[in-house]
Amino acid sequence: MNTNSNVYTVVYTTVIVVIVAAVLAFVAGKLGPAQNANAKAETLRQMMSAAGIKPTEELYSTKNAGILQLYADNIEEAYTIGLDGQKNGELTTDKDNIQLVDKLKPQNKAIKAGGDATLPVYIFKSGVIVIPVYGAGLWGPIWGYIAFEPDCRTIAGAYFDHESETPGLGAKIKDEAWFREKFAGKVVEWGATPAFRLEKNAEATGAANAVDAITGATMTSKGLNDAMNVWFKAYEDHLGLASAMHAIAEPETNKAEEE
After folding, report:
1. Strand partners, 143
2. Does 17 reside within a domain?
3. Alpha helices in 84-240 (DSSP H)
4. pTM check: above 0.70
5. 165 in a structural domain
6. Which residues span the domain enclosing 153?
7. pLDDT 10s digits, 222-252
8. N or C: which end of the chain has fewer CB within 10 A?
9. CA distances (Å), 31 to each of 189, 233, 235, 254, in order?
């Protein structure tokens, strides 16, 4: 064959493309399970950090298999709800078949469109309830997990992550433990607009549902504030109702104890 002909060039290029595609497909097939396992373990670390199952540093020093076992040992129930607040699915929790809703971007779109959402709720044996939040930071997606006390109103802990926020500024939502710790003990005011505030000098107002934004990271802080409120609104019919029921039941319990 004439190596200078157009036919040769087309054939040669086609062969190379097919070979490269085959190699990439083979590598993806081999690495896919490991990548999925790493992604699942990472999600569980973030959830359990928010829930206070173990210190964050300890979770990140534990291998994937140990993380799966730790989750299976501590989770009580996991399920999904729709925007109407009603359950629409169950998530298995046994170590060898853990199910998560860790693709949050599609759910974020469903929330904003008022469509069919599949929103996860993770309830641990400690009574802590964990839900995700997701939104847009300055340079890319930001997300996190918020843990609630059994009253479904008081925040027990939080963990945040990002794709590409600025180191030393917006990246502090993940890198700085002091920022995450500010959320513990704060409350979500279900039914209020906004239900929670993350903004400059928010804590100076004395509001229980407010945390100061990160200095120098205005857009990241705004993105996280918006993400939390959008997702809190989506969970309001479920957790807000549960919180109201808890508030009603608590005085009755105290009265019974007094008698």
Report:
1. 134, 161
2. no
3. 104-113, 172-175, 177-181, 218-235
4. yes
5. yes
6. 77-258
7. 999 999 999 999 999 999 988 888 888 766 5
8. C
9. 44, 38, 35, 56
